Amino acid sequence: FEFAPEIPSLLAGTLTAPTAPPPVESDEPPPALTISEFNQRVKGCIADAFPQSIWLIGEVVDFDKSSGREHRFFRLVEKMPRAQRPKAVVDVAMFARTAEKLLPALERGDPPLTLRDGLEIRALVRPDFYPGSGRFQVIVNDIDPSFTLGKLALTKEQILRELAQKGLLERNRQLGLPVPTLRVGVLTSPDADGWNDFLRHAEESRCGFDVTLFPIKVQGVDLKPTLLRGLAWFAEHSNQFDVLCIVRGGGSRTDLAWFDDREVAIAVARHPLKVIVGIGHQRDQSVLDVIAQSEKTPTAVAELLVRLVESARNDVRERGERLADTVADVLADSAHALAETSRRIARATGDRLAAAHRRLAEAGRDLAVHTNLRLMRERTESARAVMRLQNASGRLLERAAVRLERADTRRRLLDPKRVLQRGFTIVRGQDGRIAPSIAKLATSERLAIQFRDGTAEVHVDATRPDQDENADHE
């Protein structure tokens, strides 16, 4: 038999059910169903409404929680823009037989797809109702990878379009790199193989890199918050670094899609440090690969930094060699010029010395002539001076002889003996000194009076001063 056309619409809720006839009044209670009978009827209705598998679109939730299990149970949700809660939710089951075939096939695809939380998928499902628990779910039979990859590409294009409108698309790519680039900041997981490859290659280069790691998650829901914290930390300490590297090992396109985030892209585009990314293989590109300098792998990022240092080293070496050659040429030219200058100085010095010798000889001869003339004049003047001195000395001696003769005459005239011969006497006091005046004589003082022919000792009885002398004395 077949269902009437209005039955599926009625089950889907798009057709109003006909009005039921009024119940017939009866004393007997209405018939009732058991839970199992009710669930079986519901299961039958669902099976009748969806006799074939259908394609269902929704975002994967809680798929990562079932990792490692034989059967994978998760949910598909329908979200509304800027709404905190989903509009609708349905439980999903992927049984072991399907998971063993479907998941590896998706990962081997071109491009590969790894199922994870946050992806929007288009899945071929069969609605199912389990009467024992009354649980409704859909069972996954297949997944369309092109739908998911197309959605990821659309998200990437929307982010890039917004960055271009804000003038941020090329901002970080146009930043230059200091020379040499030695102070390196790295954002990655310390457990990732990409970090180990990067660090090993940097250490083996022996370029003297100063590498600072800020640990982040490189996939999953924790990637965005940890990456944003790392970008903010390096922006705050940008004066301590030359470049910032974001690295991780290769993975599927969906693994790398975690980097296709609007806030992360804006933070990278506006970052003060030059950002170099190595988060996938050559055929896989994220938004960060477009807005920052992109290398294929973490090892390629390390090789780029090594090449930059070696290039700077070679440039310094070449500049040093050119400088050495230039200095050698300048020194050679200077040595030649110095030798020529030395020869000119030697010739000029010889000429000047010869001229000086001639002038010195002439000056010597002139000096000898002038000296002889001067000596002759000085000898003549000396002779004249001697004659004048002799004449003056003679006159002085004559005058001195006259003065001496006069003094001798006065001496003879004033000789005490001659005075005594002329009738004068000399009065001496008790101390033997000449008494020049009676003013100093005392009564009864003994005096000695020297005469021409002897000495008489007398006593002073009285003194009579002359009146004129008393007047003068008074």
Task: Describe the protein in words.
This protein is α/β, with parallel strands linked by helices. Helices cover 48% and strands 17% of the residues. It is built from 12 helices and 13 strands. The chain has helices at 6-12, 35-49, 96-107, 145-165, 193-205, 223-236, 253-256, 262-269, 287-291, 298-413, 416-421, 467-473; strands at 54-61, 72-78, 88-94, 120-130, 135-143, 183-188, 210-215, 243-247, 274-278, 293-294, 426-428, 446-450, 455-459. The strands form 3 sheets. Strands 1-2-3-5-4 form a 5-stranded mixed beta barrel. A 5-stranded parallel beta sheet has the order 7-6-8-9-10, sandwiched between helices. Strand 12 (446-450) and strand 13 form a beta hairpin. Helix 1 crosses helix 2 and helix 6 packs parallel to helix 8. The radius of gyration is 68 Å and the shape is elongated. The protein starts with 5 loop residues before the first helix and ends with a helix. The model has no long low-confidence stretch (mean pLDDT 84).
Q: Shape from CA axes?
A: elongated
Could you say which structural class the secondary elements and strand pairing correspond to?
A: alpha/beta
Mean pLDDT: 84
Task: Give me the side-by-side strand order of the main sheet.
Answer: 1-2-3-5-4
State the major sheet.
5 strands, mixed, barrel
Q: Let me know the number of strands.
A: 13
**Which range does the strand content fall in?**
15-25%
Low-confidence blocks of residues: none
